[in-house]
Specification:
single chain; 303 residues; alpha/beta; TIM Barrel; two-stranded antiparallel ribbon
Amino acid sequence: MMKRHERALLVEREEDEMLCNGRAELCDRKYGNVTFLGAHDSFAHSPNPLALSRTQEVNITMQLDLGARLLQAQSHMNGGQLHFCHTSCGLFDGGLVEDYLRTVKTWMDKNPNEVITFIFTNPGNVSVTDVWKPLFEKTGMAELAYVPPSPVMSRDDWPTLREFITSGKRLIVFLDKGADNRAHPEEEYILPQFKMVWEDPYNPTDASFPCKVDRTQGPLPPTEQLNLINHNLNFDILPFFRPGFKFPDRLNSPRTNGMYSIYTHALNCAAIMANKNPNFVLTDFSNVGQAMAAVNFLNGFAA
């Protein structure tokens, strides 16, 4: 029979050998001190270059395999069920949210040392209680979802990646609209994004990626929130009309997802963030270019 001190040594050795999001060095870093690669409109994937509304070339499982740890998606009701769609389901229908969640759950079950973040948009203000939560519960994702100890978490309040993983609660879920009025925040895992995460301008068309605080809700100042940079370049086919008509810029994606472009964008936002790196780098065509290498660099690792 193994003695107590031997068991303690075994646990300590296992912790020393643990990888968190692929890196032992990340295990004891707080979530708010890590940069994660994000896939913008992760559901809108197609290998067809004529699918102008696509934002990704490879499917969700492959995005995760390539290193994306933030999955972003926009939701719409379609035929009485919640779908992920790009602007409208007539433009690009990514299918049922339930199917999407099952796909990610399968991947997470196979990769137990990975911390994943969802940022979902809810333009129709679909009910969290009646629609969103039942889907998370039905697919088993609720069992993985983290519930913060306070209604609003500052950047420094979050657990380490090791703590997420060992607790089994390694999915962080943000919703841009509809999660504000939580009756029992101590029980809620669908979190109000803009109380804890700010974004710079979305749908950018300027390849120099100037930075400013574009969307936030407070009560925390931006320096105390997590932050997301929208590093997904678009081209406007009707630039002389406003608001124009924008499509993801696949042609320039190797440069957009390059080391220099991502690092420059991070520097542009650093002044707002007290010289801290962004938490989330949201990209189109995440399989193209050097996006994961750039994120590794921002985390202090050799690209």
